[in-house]
Every structure is written in structure tokens, then in C-alpha cells.
Amino acid sequence: MSPLLRRKKKEPASGERVVTLIGKPGCHLCDDARVVVEEVCGGMGVRWEELDISVDAELHREYWEQIPVVLVDGEQHTFWKVDGERLRRALGG
Description:
Layout: E1 18-23, H1 28-44, E2 47-52, H2 57-63, E3 69-72, E4 75-79, H3 84-90
Parallel strand pairs: 1-2
Antiparallel strand pairs: 1-3, 3-4
Helix pairs in contact: 1-3
Organism: Streptomyces cremeus
Protein name: Glutaredoxin family protein
């Protein structure tokens, strides 16, 4: 793959990795994603947070067709189905 087409990994200045799960209540795919994110982040000691598109109009506009969405350090990592091994690799594990 051309170096021009590769995504650059953005690492936070503090060195602390952050995973964000974007979803909404009642979403079974979001429930499945939460289990994977909790397992991977818990096992690696990585901080994670969850945001709800039903209470944030901007998030709703941006992600409503893709939930659940996982961000790693603010960059979109995946949507719909979360692969635990891929998430581990993205976090350096």
C-alpha cells in the first residue's frame, strides 16, 4: 500500500490511550460492542468511555447509521461489529 494512503496513528500527547464507544440504549449491536470493549480495555488497562447519540445531536448526525462506532484516541476505528483482536492491535497489544 502506498505510504500516502496509510492512516497515520495518532497517539495522545499524554501517552494515555482512550477508547470511545458511541451507541444508544436498546441497540443490541451496541450491547455486543460494549462487552468486547470492556474486555479488551479492562485487560489492557486502557481507559474507555461511552457516548449516547440519543442525547447528543451532533453525534447523532454524524454516526446514527453506523452505531456502534468505536474511536481510538478520537479517530474512528470501526463500526457495527467490534473485533477484539483488531482493537487490541490498535491499542498496541
